[in-house]
Amino acid sequence: MLASAPSSELIRVIVIIAFAAMSLILRAKKKPDAARSAPGRPPTTPLDTIREAMRQGAEQGRVRRQQSPFQSVSPQLSDSFNQPPAIKPESPVLPTLLLLALFACLCYMAYRYFAG
C-alpha cells in the first residue's frame, strides 16, 4: 500500500518557511560586509548620491555662468568630474533556488495529477 502524500497546505507552509529562512540568512550575510566596507563613513544611499551629483552640477553651472563665453573651459572642471561607482552583479544563488523550488512544485503537481 502506498504511503499517503503530505497535504498541499503542509507543503505550502514548508516552502514559505524555507524562503523566509533563506532571505534572513542572505540578509544577515550581507550586513557584516556593508559594515566592514565603510568603517568611518555613514552608509550612502542612492538618494545621497543623487543629491551630491546635483550639488556638483549646480556648482559647475555657477562657474560656467561666471566665466565669459569666450574663455575656454578650464581643465579643473574636467578633472572634478567623478565616475559613478561600478554596479556589481547580483548573486545568482537566490534566483537559482527560486527556479529549483518552482521546478519541484511543478514536478509534485504533475505527480499528483498523473498518480491520482
Descriptive notes:
With 116 residues, this protein is mainly α. It has four helices and no strands. The chain has helices at residues 8-37, 46-66, 75-80, 93-115. The protein is elongated and about 85 Å long. The two termini are 14 Å apart.
Number of strands: 0
Number of helices: 4
Order of helices and strands: HHHH
As a percent range, the share of strand residues is under 5%
Q: Give unreliable regions as ranges.
A: none
Distance between the termini: 14 Å
The helix content, as a percent range, equals 55-70%
Give me the Rg, rounded.
27 Å
Basic shape? elongated
What class would the helix/strand composition place it in?
mainly alpha
Biggest pleated sheet: none
What number is the mean pLDDT? 77
